[in-house]
Amino acid sequence: MLRLSVGPYKTNSYVLLCGQTRSLAVDPGGDAATLLSAVAGTELAAILLTHGHSDHTRALVELHRATGAPIGVHPRDAHMLPIAPQWLFEDGEDLRLARCHLRIHHLPGHSPGSVAFEVLPDLWLVGDTLFPGGPGHTDSPDQFAQLIQTLWQRVFVLPPETRLFPGHGAPTTVGREAEPFHAFLQRGWAEDAYGDVRWDTRPGDLSNGKPSDSQTRVCADGVGHG
User: Residue 65: CB partners within 8 Å, gap ≥ 6?
Assistant: First the structure.
């Protein structure tokens, strides 16, 4: 698997080689020439999107037109794309292509249709759902609460050695993120917190980007309560 940092937001695009003659591309966030060079000599079988935000699709049209590869995305993010997708994901769907076997997991929160691709049992491509040190960006308190619940129920139940490859920045593991994540849950967070949050954020540190005196959500059972 190749990890390429592309575009103005240094989006992580991934290329998976499925045997010697076929490949998959995930999140073509820019620099189409770089991505085309990475798949040269193979048939690009599909272009897969962890979500529909533009920093993950800047090279989508050019890559699709150059290769004819079908585009796949979760239906709840399909309207965000600059071109119509040919394939709409279902939660739990399996993709088998030569030596590649991926399972699709719906992880709403950062966007309604965010997904992760389970490349191996211990290797997930998680898009912008999780970064080293914190969750992905959210645009409302409801989105933030949904993302925290998604992480608790679907990501932090994985074995600690599971490697998580995000949409920006360096890879991390479930084990590395689990302790600060659970400490964050125990501390709780401001009712109206959202945006760019880190696990070391404390109640009152972030509420709509500003210090807050609002009520704190405390998650003794691990679920964000609103």
Answer: none
